[in-house]
């Protein structure tokens, strides 16, 4: 039987610690999808750089901080308490002080450590006379960081659903590396140009959604600053300024503001019953190793939120200037996208709306410079050659058309002046007249005049008018001037294909 090799305690501890670190690294790698670099051919750009700082960089940082706060392998236990009288029950005190709170004494922060106090804010006090500051936030820090990371992702989620993949669809085959054939790229370019021209002046809601999400970004970052201030007991708003003042103060006469907000040594009161049933109070010292990490996290978040709020405010000012001042749009096209065609910039700004400009702005970030300049140049040339701004028809100006008339308007390529006047002025046609107007390709002048002026025909007359392909001059005159025929005369007129001059004269004089 083979002997088993003993395992040393240090080897076991190293094995456990290494396993914890591997799990930590696997969690951290999961946040890489927020900041990983993607090729333009793989991912379209539907926002600006400041927008991406919110949902990619800030969300990733907050999620990483959340994971670090829960990594016990880096900082050990989140709390360790000390009391000489309850050494056998110290784990109970640790749990109690963690789930309730610990406290420090603000009036003891400036005292000398080692002679007057055990640590900054840890000393003796008189209940009711001295202020006691309780710290009960630390168990909520991971949850707050995770919530903030999700909040910074909400505006992007809203805009992505509002945008609906429009940029991805219309710029397909033109983004990033060109792997398609030349013919496919030309077809993609033609489709893009056709879409922009046909959908001009229809992107108002598109722009409203984008600007709303930009406002939401600014409100979100400012709101998170005040939320953390409330969470940390109104100590976050001036947290960064105090740290800067602390770094410039003489080392012998300064008090670290991070110690006041995130103390590493605190006190905790624990009550039990004695042998006689009396209440016994135990005063324990508690070490909070987690605050070593918390103070670094929140000082970084203070500076980052301030920078991000300033950048978001500048982005709002920039968007407002684009909406209110057309001259700013001209400057953006000239300097940002290097489009300097004579008269082209003024034409695009004058004949497009804010939503159209936003679409062009986003396309300029997805297309290469040469393709985008070609697109804008052709669009400006098209707008220069049009007298009427292309837009969606006004529903108040549209009249109701029958299905046959609508099909006729789509399918007809060439109409005579009389037929066009007939289509414009006719408001109500019978089914026979509508079918006749659609299927007739060539009419004599008398037949066209007859179609325009006739307001009511009997069913047999309408059928006769539609099916007749060749009519003699007398028959045409007869059809125009006749207002009422008997059933037999109508039947006779319809079924007659060849009539002698005498019969025609006889028919007309009846």
UniProtKB/TrEMBL annotation:
Location in the cell reads: Cell junction, Gap junction; Cell membrane
Q: Which PROSITE patterns match?
A: PANNEXIN
- Report whether Transmembrane shows up as a keyword of the record: yes
> Might you name a Gene Ontology BP term for this protein?
monoatomic ion transmembrane transport
Write down the InterPro entries for this protein, in alphabetical order.
Innexin (IPR000990)
Keywords for the protein's UniProt record, in alphabetical order: Cell junction, Cell membrane, Gap junction, Ion channel, Ion transport, Membrane, Transmembrane, Transmembrane helix, Transport
Q: Which GO terms describe its cellular component?
A: gap junction; plasma membrane
Task: Locate the transmembrane regions by residue number.
Answer: 53-75, 137-159, 207-228, 297-325
Q: Cite the GO molecular-function annotations of the record.
A: gap junction channel activity
Provide the membrane topology annotation. Answer: Multi-pass membrane protein
Primary localization class, coarse: other
Query: Does the entry feature the keyword Chaperone, yes or no?
Result: no
One Pfam family from the UniProt entry?
A: Innexin
Function in brief: Structural component of the gap junctions.
Q: Which family does it belong to?
A: Belongs to the pannexin family.
User: What is the name of this protein?
Assistant: Innexin
Q: Which organism is it from?
A: Cryptotermes secundus
User: Per UniProt, what is the name of the gene that codes for the protein in this document?
Assistant: Inx3_2
């Amino acid at each position: 039987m083979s002997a088993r090799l003993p395992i040393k305690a240090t080897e076991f501890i190293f094995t456990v610690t290494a396993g914890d670190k591997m799990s930590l690294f696997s969690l951290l790698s999961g946040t890489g999808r927020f900041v990983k670099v993607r090729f333009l051919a793989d991912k379209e750009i539907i926002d600006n750089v400041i927008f991406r700082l919110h949902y990619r960089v800030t969300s990733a940082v907050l999620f990483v901080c959340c994971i670090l706060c829960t990594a016990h392998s880096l900082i050990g236990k989140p709390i360790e308490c000390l009391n000489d009288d309850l050494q056998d029950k110290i784990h109970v005190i640790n749990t109690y002080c963690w789930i309730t709170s610990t406290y420090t004494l603000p009036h003891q922060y400036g005292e000398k450590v080692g002679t007057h106090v055990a640590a900054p804010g840890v000393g003796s006090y008189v209940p009711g006379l001295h202020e006691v500051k309780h710290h009960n936030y630390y168990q909520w820090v991971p949850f707050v960081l995770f919530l903030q990371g999700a909040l910074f992702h909400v505006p992007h989620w809203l805009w992505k659903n509002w945008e609906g993949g429009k940029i991805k669809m219309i710029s397909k085959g033109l983004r990033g590396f060109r792997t398609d054939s030349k013919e496919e790229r030309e077809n993609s370019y033609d489709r893009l140009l056709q879409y922009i021209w046909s959908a001009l002046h229809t992107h108002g809601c598109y722009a409203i959604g984008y600007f709303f999400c930009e406002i939401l970004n600014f409100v979100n970052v400012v709101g998170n600053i005040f939320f953390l201030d409330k969470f940390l007991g109104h100590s976050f708003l001036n947290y960064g300024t105090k740290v800067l003042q602390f770094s410039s103060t003489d080392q012998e006469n300064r008090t670290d503001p991070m110690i006041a907000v995130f103390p590493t040594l605190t006190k905790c009161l624990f009550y039990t019953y004695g042998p006689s049933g009396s209440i016994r109070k135990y005063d324990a010292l508690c070490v909070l190793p987690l605050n070593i990490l918390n103070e670094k996290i929140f000082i970084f978040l203070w500076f980052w939120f301030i920078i991000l709020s300033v950048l978001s405010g500048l982005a709002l000012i920039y968007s407002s200037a684009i909406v209110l001042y057309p001259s700013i749009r001209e400057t953006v096209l000239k300097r940002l996208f290097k489009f300097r065609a004579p008269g082209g910039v003024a034409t695009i700004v004058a004949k497009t709306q804010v939503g159209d400009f936003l679409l062009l702005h986003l396309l300029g970030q997805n297309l290469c410079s040469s393709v985008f300049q070609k697109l804008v140049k052709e669009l400006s040339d098209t707008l220069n050659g049009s007298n009427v701004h292309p837009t969606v028809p006004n529903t108040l100006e549209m009249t109701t058309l029958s299905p046959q008339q609508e099909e006729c308007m789509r399918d007809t390529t060439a109409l005579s002046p009389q037929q066009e006047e007939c289509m414009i002025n006719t408001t109500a046609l019978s089914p026979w007249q509508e079918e006749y107007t659609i299927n007739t390709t060539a009419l004599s002048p008398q037949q066209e005049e007859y179609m325009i002026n006739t307001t009511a025909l009997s069913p047999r007359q309408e059928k006769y008018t539609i099916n007749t392909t060749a009519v003699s001059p007398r028959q045409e005159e007869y059809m125009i001037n006749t207002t009422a025929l008997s059933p037999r005369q109508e039947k006779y007129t319809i079924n007659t294909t060849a009539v002698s001059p005498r019969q025609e004269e006889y028919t007309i004089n009846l």
